[in-house]
Design brief:
about 220 residues, alpha/beta, TIM Barrel, 8-stranded parallel β-barrel, 9 helices, about 45% helix, about 15% strand, DeoC/FbaB/LacD_aldolase, deoxyribose-phosphate aldolase activity, Deoxyribose-phosphate aldolase, EC 4.1.2.4, DeoC_typeI
Length: about 220
């Protein structure tokens, strides 16, 4: 397994500068990561820099709280795709999950999935597991699967904790074979990355992609 090909090289800090964005794009090309994952304001720049490259552009929608209206999330998604995004990581409406407003959660994911798929793009649904019970994680995975999401993702990396191997396994067990799992948040070394992969992660969202890749080559 070439670990670089499952890494979304990520920089989502609000204070990230243009120079830092340019640097992660250069790194993504050098190490042949699967994608760069950036905030929407940087999508167009990354798409231009990655033209004629195998590296994809991933961005985040409803980030990091997930509490935007459906109409806002749809606009964000359409705008990101117009600007060159290949993959959309949308934060689920956590408050709706906690309130058992499951029909509304499913409708939202289905609407965003339709926008993505009509444009040939991938949708990942960020669950923010640290705010959910195990039963809620399972339910959110089942809803995401039913609504047409391509991935379920553990975390934004901006809440109380990030990915856990236990949660990755629960997510893998709670979706069909069609749906993949992305682990993100707090994965800073090769050992942790492999733990996530062994528990069912198909993709890793990491800011330490270069260090993880270099470490993998030493073993």
């Amino acid at each position: 397994m070439e670990i670089n090909r499952i890494i979304d090289h990520t920089l989502l800090k609000p204070e990230a500068t243009e120079a830092q964005i340019e640097e992660i794009v250069r790194e993504a090309k050098e190490y042949n990561f699967f994608s760069v994952c950036v905030n929407p304001t940087w999508v167009k720049k990354c798409a231009e820099m990655l033209k004629n490259s195998s590296v994809k552009v991933c961005t985040v929608i409803g980030f990091p709280l997930g509490a935007n209206t459906l109409e806002t999330k749809i606009f964000e998604t359409e705008n990101a795709i117009e600007n060159g995004a290949d993959e959309i990581d949308m934060v689920i409406n956590v408050g709706y999950v906690k309130s058992k407003k499951f029909n509304e959660v499913e409708d939202e994911i289905r609407e965003i999935a339709k926008v993505c798929h009509d444009n040939g793009k991938i949708l990942k649904v960020i669950l923010e597991n640290c705010l959910l019970t195990k039963d809620e994680i399972k339910k959110a995975c089942e809803i995401s699967d039913r609504a047409g999401a391509d991935f379920v993702k553990t975390s934004t990396g901006f809440s109380t904790s990030g990915a856990s191997a236990e949660d990755v396994k629960l997510m893998r067990d709670s979706v069909s074979d069609r749906v993949k799992v992305k682990a993100s948040g707090g994965i800073r070394d090769y050992k942790k990355a492999i733990e996530m992969i062994n528990n069912g992660a198909d993709r890793l969202g990491v800011s330490a992609g270069v260090a993880i890749y270099k470490e993998s080559k030493l073993l």
